[in-house]
Amino acid sequence: MMLKRAMFRCGQLCSRVFAVEFDLRTEPLYFTLSSTPQELHQAHQQLFGGDEKLFSLHVHSDSRTEKARTHAEIKHKLSVALSRDCDVFEASAFIPDVKNSVVKGFFIRDKSTTSLSEDVLKTLQQSKSVCVFSYKREGQYCWQELWSPVNQVEESVRQYVTPAAAAERHPSTLNITSSDVYYCMNDAYEVLRECTDIIPESKEVLKLVNEQLETSRGDAFPVIVIEGLDATGKTTLTEALRESLNATLLKSPPQCLAPFRQRFDSEPPLIRRAFYALGNYITAAHIGKESLRAPVIVDRYWHSTAAYAIATAVGGRVENLPKPGSELYQWPEDLLQPNLVLLLTVSPEERLRRLRDRGQDKTVEEAELEINQLFRLKVEEAYKRIQNPACIIVDASPSPREVLQQVEHLIRNKCHLKTTSSLPDETRSHAISPHTTRW
Ligand SMILES: Nc1ncnc2c1ncn2[C@@H]1O[C@H](COP(=O)(O)OP(=O)(O)OP(=O)(O)O)[C@@H](O)[C@H]1O
Ligand SMILES: Nc1ccn([C@H]2C[C@H](O)[C@@H](COP(=O)(O)O)O2)c(=O)n1
């Protein structure tokens, strides 16, 4: 039964292009499978040409939540259970330019002489969602075959590794829509609904969404979003703006989701990002209400959700990000748009100094950001590529007072507002009036 299932999965994969993130500084290694022997290119020789044991495994399932969780579990297991002699690379099998065609997995290169990797793979293969291949060499050629712990897969045919041209779009960009970034509320809502059995907190989050959603926005005061990597000064600035504009300060995710955040942060992107996406819709409902009374400042919103999600989903280099202008950078049609989005930027050195000075606990993602320069660059680049509205970049390296003045100036110009930091307190609340122009 297990073998039959594996053979079926194998058939589904064979016609795809395989990509292995062998060296994160360059393009992935791409190959297809062919029934006739093919000579390997020099680049492919680096991975397939040695005498190490090679395996790949791919995660299939008709249930997207099961697939996402199995992938995350395998990633964890491989990182803790394999020996130091094993290299694990992210891998995928996909159909070029076909959305949602990516089957994610891993490629394992085992330099050891022990059977530890086989033992680990044997347990992983028990899962009905996992399909394992091994790679064998003969002279110039390398072939892939369905792996079984006892090597008795008689029906498995040799499929020769055949170097393939680089894909125009990095494969990881093919599955972003509704797996990492949600472009309408329903898509995110559905993911959490599918999780209610395995994550009971999902029910409570959905209940909050149902209770709080309200999308009224009439002749309102302006809404200004402040974005940026952690420790770029968002909290400092948003609190100062609340004072100077006599504004309401909101955050995304909103306070009502705080008790659930840690729970969802430990879930794979499919589920974690759905949680943050729904947080934006609740914040949008709060914005709708509050902006009838006063200007609204928002600490993180859609730009953060999309930029972190895209940067996490896309492996390797900044060049792998979806190209500027891609539909992946578009604002969701059903999400309330702010009038102005400002992106605070500081140099990596200054940001690290601020992080160290603050010395607070960091989320895993923030800790990763600190050590992972590539990831930081991708988040910032993704921020800058998001459209409608695009963000305006603010150099946040001067003193808090100078940053505030700079931002007040921008708000005055872009929102046609009078900012009142220099006015006495009693005049402030009347200095900003609701606008009648389109936002
Ligand atoms: N303009 C500035 N110059 C120097 N230090 C600053 C400036 N703005 C903020 N800081 C300091 O940098 C640290 C991080 O600032 P803050 O908490 O405002 O950043 P943040 O973007 O809100 O971070 P996070 O997203 O992690 O909450 C704090 O210790 C703060 O006092
Ligand atoms: N609207 C939001 C807000 C936050 N996130 C994610 C992105 C990071 O992982 C993390 C940073 O938040 P902070 O620690 O500064 O509160 O939260 C998001 O995806 N969408």
UniProtKB/TrEMBL annotation:
Enzyme's top EC category: transferase
EC id: 2.7.4.14, 2.7.4.9
Gene3D superfamilies according to UniProt: P-loop containing nucleotide triphosphate hydrolases (3.40.50.300)
Subcellular location: Mitochondrion
GO biological process: dTDP biosynthetic process; dTTP biosynthetic process; dUDP biosynthetic process
Keywords of the record: ATP-binding, Coiled coil, Kinase, Mitochondrion, Nucleotide biosynthesis, Nucleotide-binding, Pyrimidine biosynthesis, Transferase, Transit peptide
The Thymidylate kinase-like domain, residue ranges: 226-406
A single Gene Ontology CC term: mitochondrion
InterPro entries on file: P-loop_NTPase, Thymidylate_kin-like_dom, Thymidylate_kinase, UMP-CMP_kinase_2
HAMAP family per the UniProt record, alphabetical: Thymidylate_kinase (MF_00165)
Record-given protein name: UMP-CMP kinase 2, mitochondrial
Taxonomic source organism: Carassius auratus
